UniProtKB/TrEMBL annotation:
InterPro entries: Glu/Gly-bd. It is found in: Membrane. Residues 8-91 form the Ionotropic glutamate receptor L-glutamate and glycine-binding domain. This is Ionotropic glutamate receptor L-glutamate and glycine-binding domain-containing protein. It is a multi-pass membrane protein.
Length: 102
């Protein structure tokens, strides 16, 4: 999660995922550089030409090594061809609701 200043720049990054990366960086002695996907595209989707937007696209273009996000572990959509998942360390239940006239 992020806290932004009045100009829309990231001021503070916080949350369990950020803390996890900071802890791993401390243990393995590296300095993480946090980047957001361009254009607010977040996780990403595949374009008709086969390329990807978002974080998945950043992996495809070798622009990043490690991503933190609430991605579903799924082979659907081909994301697993460009990223590898850790063991889950949290879980959420997602329901889709449909209001149907009877």
């Amino acid at each position: 999660m992020y806290s932004y200043d009045e100009k829309g720049n990231v001021k503070v990054r916080y949350g369990g995922n950020v803390r996890l990366v900071e802890t791993v960086a401390e243990i393995f002695n590296f300095t993480p550089r946090f980047m957001e996907p361009p254009g607010g595209s977040l996780w990403g989707h595949q374009l008709p030409n086969g390329s990807w937007t978002g974080m998945v696209g950043m992996f495809e273009r070798d622009e990043g090594d490690l991503g933190i996000a609430n991605l579903f572990i799924s082979a659907l959509g081909g994301r697993n061809e460009h990223q590898h998942y850790t063991a889950p360390f949290g879980q959420e239940v997602v329901f889709d609701a449909c209001l149907c006239a009877v």
